Amino acid sequence: MSEPIKMPQLGESVTEGTIARWLKAEGEDIELDEPIVEIDTDKVSSELPSPLAGKLEKILVGEGDTVDVGVEIATVAIAGESPNGGSPEVEAPADGEAAEWPVADTAAQPVAAGGGESPSAVARGGNGGGSATKTAEELRLTRSSPVVRRLAAEHGVSIGEISGTGIGGRVTKKDIEAYVEGRVRRAPPGLAEEREYFAPPEPTKLPPPSSPEPSPVESYPGDESIPLTSMRRAIANRMSTSKREAPHAWSMVEVDMTGLVKLREAHKEAFKAREGVGLTYLPFIVKAVVESLKEYPVVNSVWDGDAIVLRRSVNIGVAVDIEDGENGALIVPVVKDADNYGIVGLARKSAEVIKKARSKQLSPDDIAEGTFTVNNPGALGSVVSVPIINHPQAAILSAEAIVKRPVVMEEWGDAIVVRSMMNLEISFDHRIFDGGVALRFLNAIKNRLESYGPRSSIG
Known about the structure:
alpha+beta; CATH 2.40.50.100; Dihydrolipoamide Transferase; 3 domains; 4-stranded antiparallel β-sheet; 21% strand
């Protein structure tokens, strides 16, 4: 007997996924919870475990293809199934219910006004009556992103009456806007009542397009076009949104890391043997950031139109560079409640989330609820950078490479000595606070990092 494996819902607002790479081939045996496929979404890239033990019978969706949540992507011949239909060794799903991955967040998505089933109901065949899986056309009419559903509801539009231009005929935000604009143009002239009905409501403020229309690019001989992965597309959209929404400003200070360098050199081997993780500079930087955010809470905030929301939680995102095809990727797992940890705890937590990011084991919860981001381009040799804010956060910090260089020490009678120096930059949303706050915050971090010496304790 065969059982289907369906595209899982990896996050509350995720409606589709892209098969990045199959880890198993047709005919291969698979164990329960063994990773069998890499899936990219606009939020996270993950290796997903098999919910069934048996043999991978057939791959239904090829690498690079994007399908809706709930669509069958493979079938598995259940292990231990006897030819005469005896009981399998692995418990099969209940009648009428298809196998699904156990994921952190599988909340069903609402659909546009006018009814329709949740993705969970669609995937299982509706209202429990054992009906067949919905067709691609039916899925197109009932599945859409939260932005599209909200926009359709604002204009009283039924998604089913619009021809979609998205993947698989999905209706996009631009489709809704074009349809509404066309409806206004079709209104009979001179009829004020009808014009008032057809025109978009004035109080409604539509969100900006997710990304501008790309301009045509002239191709040269030998050029190669690299298709965008879901992750790269998501990064592009988020960075564009951040630069469009937040007026960026930038400042930098120099930090004398000599004392901290000596402290790390004295303890790194014993720390590795005792704690099982390496002692890097990242936990010291995160600790200094956390303590400085307590001193300047406005930096741990978001812009909310006519208010500034101060975040009570201190959740530090750690930017991680990962290899992902030709153009790589940057993902930001989050250390939740970072203010509850000391250096040892932060070393463990940061090592844990970085490992999960690079092994594609992050869940949607691992990248959610960040309040401030720390970028560490210095690990790749950078000495100066201007990071883009992780929207909608208020600011992002970049810690550069630690470089030995000559420095004039006033307290030593203007002697020129060699010190281990690091540049520390902040990009911030100028709507939320000004350069004075940014520099005081940077100097608070600087002073904390410069306070370490060879005899400091690591707690």
